């Protein structure tokens, strides 16, 4: 009982510190530096502490200081409650959705079975989609609550885009669920022990579609008509400054991490190294005794999981800085007229293949 | 006589851009584009960690203020007055630059020296108005004002400090020799 509590608290602290403490500021730095390297220039590298510029890693700290000392205002005529509430609604689902993503398997530690997932719900995937749908409220409220025509337009575009891509994402996942037979993410991860059971081999079309729809859901380029940096000033977050702006921004980055985590879990073997199973790892580390072997196996698996997550974060950043922006009607046409039929055909073919087995 | 009416009407040219099937299946073109950009990324990343020896640096950024760009000779920087060897200005206060300046940045008060020469007793160039067009340099008949290659030192805390007087604008003839040679080449037809 106490052991369960300690285990939960440790897992929650770990995920919080990795997500909010590590990934959020680092992703701000990565965005600047990666875009700079892809464009043959040096990124931001002038923020220094006592003369040490650590290749620009102090810039997120400088950002934090700048944001905390900015004036926090609500524009005249705007709805005070919703203007303040919108960033919270945008940020919270991105953090919560990580509660059901497994970052490791099941291990025996000190005579106790440790499951490296914060909440092993048996409706894992549905939970994530429910919270992703909640995130669209933040965009809509932000656009409406600022007393501004252009924010309103940005919020409208954002809400329509997010809604349509949620539908298509759900239909994509049905293929994965049919193949693995369960909604529980830890079981989907455990079933990918065999290298040829990885989701990318069983559902290649599903992977491409899901990745694209998730990027569209996140309102990130090439689907960023909602924020449209050079068209709508800053879209639905024009009238935000200081901490609220950073909350929108952090929500976007955390959702990048969540998407990367989801894609890794469902399509790329979650925490497994290609031909190595958990049992083999624990036997390999047998020299350190049963607890030590478990701890070392945990470290290897968690490191593999986060290495794959980092690869997908890099991929999303590369996509952002390579592709031009879609026009708004092209975004809608892509979602409804091109992805929806492909997702339905995918389900149909998956069903046929499963029947034939 | 003349051009017929059909030739005068503008013809609408319609170019039909046909996309092949390979290009309409977006995904392959996207992968090709991402290949190009990720090649840039990895080459620059390795270039940071292990810089290539001797080869030209691929990253184009100039680390101002530690490194500065060498500017071409046609660059129009700050206008400066040219001084002769004895330190006095070549300017004869004819007022042509004052008249032609589109931003009305120059103010001249002319005086006469003992030997009859004309000189500006006060020459004020308001740097907050100057647009660096180079008309004053082009119209001057004595090559007394040229656009140097300076672009720094123009951030002041008081607006009055930006009204540069004659003393601040003087530079020796040797330092702007290249610029004078250059403008002789391009403006000489008009001036001499």
Provide a descriptive summary of the structure in words.
The complex is a heterodimer of chains A (357) and B (192). Chain A has 357 residues and is mainly alpha-helical. Chain A has one domain (78-356). Chain A is 66% helix and 2% strand. Chain A has helices at 2-38, 59-68, 80-96, 124-145, 149-180, 185-190, 199-202, 204-217, 243-267, 278-284, 289-322, 328-356; strands at residues 106-109, 112-115. Chain A starts with a helix and ends with a helix. In chain A, 41% of the residues are buried. The model of chain A has no long low-confidence stretch (mean pLDDT 85). Chain B has 192 residues and is an alpha+beta fold. Chain B has two domains: 20-60, no CATH class; 79-191, Alpha-Beta Plaits. Chain B is 32% helix and 15% strand. Chain B is built from seven helices and six strands. Chain B has helices at 5-8, 21-24, 26-49, 96-100, 135-139, 166-169, 177-191; strands at 79-83, 106-112, 118-126, 145-147, 163-164, 170-172. In chain B, the strands form two sheets. A three-stranded mixed beta sheet of chain B has the order 4-1-6. In chain B, strands 2-3-5 form a three-stranded antiparallel beta sheet. The longest helix of chain B has 24 residues, at 26-49. The radius of gyration of chain B is 27 Å and the shape is flat. The two termini of chain B are 44 Å apart. The relative contact order of chain B is 0.14. The mean pLDDT of chain B is 83. At the A-B interface, helix 1 and helix 11 of A face helix 3 of B.
Q: Main attributes?
A:
heterodimer, A: 357 residues, B: 192 residues, alpha+beta, Alpha-Beta Plaits, 2 domains, 7 helices, 32% helix
Short recap of the structure:
The complex is a heterodimer of chains A (357) and B (192). Chain A has 357 residues and is an all-alpha fold.
């Amino acid at each position: 009982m106490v052991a369960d509590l300690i285990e939960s608290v440790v897992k929650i602290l770990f995920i919080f510190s990795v997500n909010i403490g590590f990934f959020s500021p680092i992703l701000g730095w990565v965005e600047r530096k990666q875009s700079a390297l892809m464009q043959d220039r040096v990124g931001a590298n002038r923020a220094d502490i006592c003369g040490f510029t650590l290749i620009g890693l102090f810039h997120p700290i400088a950002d934090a200081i700048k944001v905390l000392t900015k004036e926090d205002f609500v524009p005249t005529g705007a709805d005070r409650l919703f203007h303040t509430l919108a960033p919270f609604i945008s940020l919270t689902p991105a953090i919560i959705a990580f509660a059901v993503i497994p970052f490791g398997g099941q291990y025996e530690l000190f005579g106790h079975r440790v499951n490296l997932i914060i909440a092993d719900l048996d409706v894992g995937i549905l939970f994530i989609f429910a919270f992703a749908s909640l995130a669209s409220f933040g965009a809509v409220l932000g656009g409406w609550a600022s007393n501004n025509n252009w924010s309103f337009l940005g919020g409208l575009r954002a809400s329509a885009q997010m809604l349509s891509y949620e539908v298509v994402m759900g239909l994509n996942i049905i293929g994965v669920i049919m193949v693995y037979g369960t909604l529980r993410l830890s079981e989907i991860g455990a079933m990918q022990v065999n290298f040829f059971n990885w989701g990318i081999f069983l559902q290649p079309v599903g992977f491409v579609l899901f990745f694209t729809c998730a990027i569209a859901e996140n309102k990130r380029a090439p689907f960023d008509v909602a924020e449209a940096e050079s068209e709508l000033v800053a879209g639905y977050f024009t009238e935000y400054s200081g901490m609220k702006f950073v909350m929108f921004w952090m929500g976007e980055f955390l959702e990048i991490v969540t998407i990367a985590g989801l894609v890794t879990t469902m399509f790329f073997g979650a925490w497994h190294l290609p031909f190595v199973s958990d049992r083999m790892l624990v036997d390999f580390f047998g020299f350190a005794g049963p607890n030590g072997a478990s701890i070392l196996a945990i470290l290897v698996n968690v490191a593999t999981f986060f290495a794959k997550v980092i690869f997908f974060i890099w991929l999303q950043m590369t996509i952002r800085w390579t592709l031009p922006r879609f026009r708004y009607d092209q975004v809608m046409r892509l979602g409804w007229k091109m992805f929806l039929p492909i997702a339905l055909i995918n389900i149909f073919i998956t069903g046929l293949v499963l029947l034939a087995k | 006589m003349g051009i017929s009416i059909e030739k005068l009407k503008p013809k609408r040219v319609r170019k039909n851009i046909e996309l092949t099937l390979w290009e309409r299946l977006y995904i392959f073109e996207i992968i090709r584009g991402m290949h190009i950009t990720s090649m840039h990324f990895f080459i620059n990343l390795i270039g940071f960690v292990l810089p290539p020896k001797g080869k030209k640096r691929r990253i184009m950024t100039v680390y101002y203020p530690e490194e500065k760009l060498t500017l071409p000779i046609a660059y129009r920087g700050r206008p400066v007055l040219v001084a002769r060897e004895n330190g006095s200005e070549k300017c004869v206060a004819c007022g042509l630059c004052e008249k032609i300046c589109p931003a009305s940045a120059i103010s001249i008060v002319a005086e006469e020296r003992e030997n009859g020469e004309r000189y500006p007793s006060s020459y004020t160039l308001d740097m907050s108005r100057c647009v660096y067009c180079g008309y004053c340099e082009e119209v001057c008949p004595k090559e007394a004002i040229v656009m140097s290659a300076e672009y720094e030192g123009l951030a002041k805390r008081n607006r009055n400090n930006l009204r540069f007087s004659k003393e601040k604008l003087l530079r020796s003839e040797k330092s702007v020799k290249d610029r004078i040679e250059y403008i002789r080449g391009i403006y000489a037809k008009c001036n001499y």
